[in-house]
Specification:
Strand content: 35-45%
Number of strands: 11
Largest sheet: 6 strands, mixed
Structural class: alpha/beta
Low-confidence stretches: 220-229
Number of helices: 5
CATH architecture of the domain at 3-79 and 159-196: 2-Layer Sandwich
Radius of gyration: 19 Å
Length: about 230
């Protein structure tokens, strides 16, 4: 990402193509986009071809912006992306529900996922349903009085093996992966809305889904907007 100029760089990897896109987050315009389509669909990423694709495009983008690409957002649509739903129910001892109640239960679910699936890197945590007073809600209902509550949480993850291989390819260009995004999740969330894909990716990253937990570094420079969408330390 090149935030000084409101630019994001996206690397999109699917079973039929690679795409690299330099996206202006201020006016939602694509500054640069190139793709490499495969003759046949494949379930395995050809890392040699990916390296050549990056070789052909990274320096063009850096020349265009007169800035090095230090970070990149990787969007993956692959069979190695896993979805898992976890349900947790807890007693509520303070009666009125608050975001603090949710934070504790989501942290517990995240820790359970990490302990059980140590070979996976979490990409997204999404609250599917809120179970309060025997009723199911799609959105959080603050300040309701209840003795217990539960959450149905979806975890979307990528294998540590795949993330390591991608990081090694990008390391050649001194580029770090700042975030992994599931392409299928993006497309499903915006189904039928007709937005351009880079716009959809940007909006997912910036919290358009109020039920998505935002994973942030342990020492975030900008704290806040917990009311807009959840944040947990990654």
């Amino acid at each position: 990402m090149t935030k000084e100029f409101d630019l994001d760089t996206y690397l999109i990897i699917t079973d039929c193509k690679f795409v690299i896109c330099l996206f202006n987050t201020k006016n939602f315009k694509k500054i640069y986009i190139q793709e490499l389509e495969f003759k046949n669909k494949t379930t395995d990423i050809d890392f040699h071809s990916l390296s050549e694709f990056l070789e052909n495009n990274i320096f063009k983008i850096e020349k265009l912006t007169s800035k090095f690409i230090n970070n990149i957002i990787v969007v993956i649509d692959s069979e190695e992306i896993k979805d898992l739903n976890i349900g947790i129910k807890k007693k509520n001892y303070v009666k009125n529900l608050s975001f603090k109640n949710l934070e504790s239960i989501i942290v517990e679910a995240k820790d359970l996922f990490k302990e059980t699936y140590q070979d996976q890197n979490i990409m997204h945590i999404i609250v599917q349903n809120y179970l309060i007073n025997g009723k199911t809600y799609l959105k959080f209902q603050k300040n309701l009085q209840t003795n217990d509550f539960g959450l149905e949480i979806k975890f979307i993850s990528v294998s540590n093996k795949l993330s390591y291989q991608l990081e090694k390819v990008l390391e050649k260009y001194q580029i770090k992966i700042s975030k992994y995004i599931s392409g299928i999740y993006v497309e499903n969330y915006f189904q039928g809305k007709g937005n351009e894909f880079p716009v959809m990716v940007y909006e997912i990253i910036n919290g358009i889904n109020e039920n998505e937990v935002k994973l942030v570094p342990k020492n975030p420079s900008n704290k806040g907007f917990f009311e807009k969408f959840f944040q947990l330390f990654s």
